[in-house]
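does this look right to u?? zinc ion version
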Amino acid sequence: MERMKFLKSMTAAPGIPGFERQVQEVLLDYLDGCAAVSRDRLGSLIFRKVGDENGPKVMLPGHMDEIGFMVNLVTDEGYLRFVPLGGWWDQVLLGQRVRIQANDRWVTGVIGSKPPHILKDEERSKVVKQDAMFIDIGARNRDHVEQELGIKPGAPVFPVSEFEKMADPKMILAKAWDDRAGCAAFAEVIRALQNSDHPNVVYGVGTVQEEVGLRGAQTSAQMIEPDVCVALDVGIAGDMPGVTAEESPLKMGKGPVMYLADRSVIAHPGLRELVIDTARGENIDLQFSTLMGGGTDAGSVHLVGAGVPSLTLGVAVRYVHSHQGIMHLDDYEGLVKLLTAVVRTLDWDIVKELHK
Ligand SMILES: [Zn+2]
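got this back:
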């Protein structure tokens, strides 16, 4: 499958925390025949690619879930009230399209908002809180929603947006780059390793429920018991009006990103230097980030067993945790190239040094 088509399928797939099945399908299709497949009991999808059966276990987790919502109440009039699954900022919600799985089809909804014509002066300058919002699916009443369509409390609600190339065709607008970019990257690495040696066993893992607390990373790592881990996630691009370098120094098109630390993990110093050296050797520019406002799957993985040397690599994305983000294709390509090169170096000699 050509890269753009793969990225489009990955981002288009609906997959919120606890409901990642359709992302699984895209990955299974892309990696068909490339690796042995297993699952943990929460739904994380594990692709095992053997280079040296006796080599160290290298875990490459990327989370399949994107942030979304769950219906928690249907009103008499047929509107849906909802709770967030993952970290939304209320201001990006109003007027956005969503999709809900009904009995036999997808139903489109919009997060309703009062038109400005009827807003009072004091309302205009205020953020509307999420718990005051509702989803309008154009239903007649509660019976229509619950009985005819089969949409009840507990139904997952998925964001909707288009995949498009922008003015610079390397800039791609889509939903869910966080973290389909990471899932796509480990999948491309597994493909890249098909016809070459690598001194280890690679576990590419599509994890579940990262956005609600790094949960699938924990369960899948407990199954795998990895010796080393490079997690894949997105960085927060800061190259836009109103964002300072102190808030985020990351720029689009300036290379893949290494997290030096986030709220959940500190990059393992030995692994950090190994990745930096590898990037230099491959002529790949690397950007660095600290993100104390969020965690990554490495946060769960590095605490498994006696501890797993871990860090997180990714690509900078603009407008993360909204209905649409922008990713630069060069950064993604650099990430795949760097990760492939890092995996090729991880033999027992190197991994044992990391364990000291
Ligand atoms: Zn993420």
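The chain is about 30% helix and 25% strand. idk if thats expected tbh
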